[in-house]
Amino acid sequence: MTVTSLAADLSELDRADPLARFRDRFHLRDGLIYLDGNSLGALPRATAARLQQVIADEWGEGLITSWLGAEWSTAPQRIGDKIARLLGADPGEIVATDSTSVNIFKALTAALSLRPGRSKILSEKTNFPTDVYMMQGIEAFSGGRVKAVAVDPAAVLDALDDDVAVLLLTQVHYKSGRVRDMAEVTRRAHAAGALAVWDLSHSAGAIEVDLNGAQADFAIGCGYKFLNGGPGAPAYLFAAARHQAATPVLSGWFGHARPFSFEDDYDPAAGITRFLCGTPPVLGLAALEAGVDLLLEADMGELRRKSLRLGDLFMERMEPLCDRHGFELASERDPALRGSQVAYAHPQAYQIVQALKEYDVVADFRAPDILRFGLTPLYLRHRDIAETVERLEQVCATRAWDKPQYHQRAAVT
Amino acid sequence: MTVTSLAADLSELDRADPLARFRDRFHLRDGLIYLDGNSLGALPRATAARLQQVIADEWGEGLITSWLGAEWSTAPQRIGDKIARLLGADPGEIVATDSTSVNIFKALTAALSLRPGRSKILSEKTNFPTDVYMMQGIEAFSGGRVKAVAVDPAAVLDALDDDVAVLLLTQVHYKSGRVRDMAEVTRRAHAAGALAVWDLSHSAGAIEVDLNGAQADFAIGCGYKFLNGGPGAPAYLFAAARHQAATPVLSGWFGHARPFSFEDDYDPAAGITRFLCGTPPVLGLAALEAGVDLLLEADMGELRRKSLRLGDLFMERMEPLCDRHGFELASERDPALRGSQVAYAHPQAYQIVQALKEYDVVADFRAPDILRFGLTPLYLRHRDIAETVERLEQVCATRAWDKPQYHQRAAVT
Question: A336 near A171, Cβ under 8 Å?
Answer without folding.
Answer: no
